[in-house]
Amino acid sequence: MKFNSHYLPIVIGASLAIGVLVGSFVSNPNPTSFSKTSVSKNKLNTLIDFINNEYVDSVNTDSIVNMTVDKILSQLDPHSVYIPPSELAQVSENMKGDFVGIGVNFYMYKDSVAVIKTIENGPSEKAGILAGDRILYAGKTKLFGRNLPTDSLFAQLKGTQGSEVELTLFRKSIGKKLKVKLKRDVIPIKSVDAALLLTPKMGYIKINRFAETTFAEFKKGLSQLQKNKINALVLDLRENGGGYMEEAIAIADEFLKEKQLIVFTKSKNGTEEKTYATNKGSFLNGKLYVLIDENSASASEIVAGAIQDNDRGIIVGRRSFGKGLVQREMDFKDGSAIRLTVARYYTPTGRSIQKPYNHGKEDYFKEYGARFKSGELYVKDSIKVADSLKFKTPKGKIVYGGGGIVPDVFVPTEIEQGDEHVGYILQSGMIGRFVFEYLDANRNEFKNTSFEDFRNKMKNSDQFYKWFQSYVYDASFEVPLAKNKELINRYVAAEFARQLYGEKQYYLLTLGNDAMIKKVLKQK
């Protein structure tokens, strides 16, 4: 997952951006034993003792140990990582699917906590907090003008369920301070962004990651769509960096017939574990399309691989990230943890889709830029596949291993060739920050404007593009945007819809002109 702390909002009550890793994790039912001793381990322990007892200056040996752990793991693979105590709680919380808090999305804007949007039916919405409000105090704790670290800020807004907090707000629209009391409650962190109809009989479900609640959210969305008697479904896994393998398996199970292989893993000692579909599938016969791109990884690739290898549906988009490694979390007593690669996974035909990582972690995670330069984001024939890694599905379709899932139907990126900097802008969160700042200064411009009125306003208008273009130039970014005018206009307008109306409205605006959706509709 890509994370840019300057542009992305801090979110209380929605998906939290995590820069820890892209990957599938499996549970650890049996605590791992570390009883085995070695000369090297004793040498490391003795060195730490020497430094503690004899070194001339005072040294924080904990930090040395942490650096050593990081260095060791960096020699293994890009997905084996150390998570310090300060980050573990947030990482675990995001994958859990909920937390206890006040229920707002916010930016740290000019050293103030600025509310982007309240979470529907959450404590803040019920207390009357509005978009644009600044949270000045939580109780007697000052939150502005202090450059508080993120974990300290979270600690003031989170708490135990039912605990009360008095917030002091500044409401910019009326220029006054207000005090509100609210009780903290459980706030969902949704992993299913949208479940809606593309046509009267074609459903669409967007999954942003695979967390503990993902299958339950997916199942709820699918059931709602099936009430409309849909005969086709688009499962959107673009930009989905993965998560829990079990959730991916449960979703794949909904589409496959009993005893069809979903995935299998192999560990260091050669132990092989196969997972098959059950008789619980609820969407076995309708047309199925799975959307992937270069940032679809791990658990997303498990789903796409299972669908492709069983000839169940059509994979649409661009070659996926290429992660075929499985991690297990192992905890330390100080509250930190490591996520260690313990197995490789394989698609039903026997493919490993893990891409090479022998050139280091930086090149591994920056391969996006290399794909731009090679032209594979524009032309399917530019995708490099090895004939030695050729496999056949039951119906004779040729599929390849060795670095991601190659789609059945290729759709080039909508970013004009040579303009990869536009791709980075779209991913950076810069659009979200621009929209917040514009609304913060001009919120009355949209007062009493319904979503339908807003959508009609944006049709055949490039006003959103012009606003953003001015913002980019004022920020001294020398980035030519004109060739990507329609694309940028669409996503800026959609971000206005998200911050004004909600996540569903964002997708209602983006999907209408989405290149992959257009390709799917032509497949019918």
Automatic annotation (TrEMBL):
It comes from the Bacteria. The chain crosses the membrane at residues 7-26. The keyword Nuclease does not apply. One of its GO terms (molecular function) is endopeptidase activity. It holds the Pfam family Peptidase_S41. Keywords: Hydrolase, Membrane, Protease, Serine protease, Transmembrane, Transmembrane helix. GO terms for cellular component: outer membrane-bounded periplasmic space. GO terms for biological process: proteolysis; signal transduction. CDD domains: cpPDZ_CPP-like, Peptidase_S41_CPP. Residues 175-356 form the Tail specific protease domain. The keyword Transmembrane helix applies. Coiled coil: none annotated. Belongs to the peptidase S41A family. This is S41 family peptidase. It comes from Flavobacterium agrisoli.
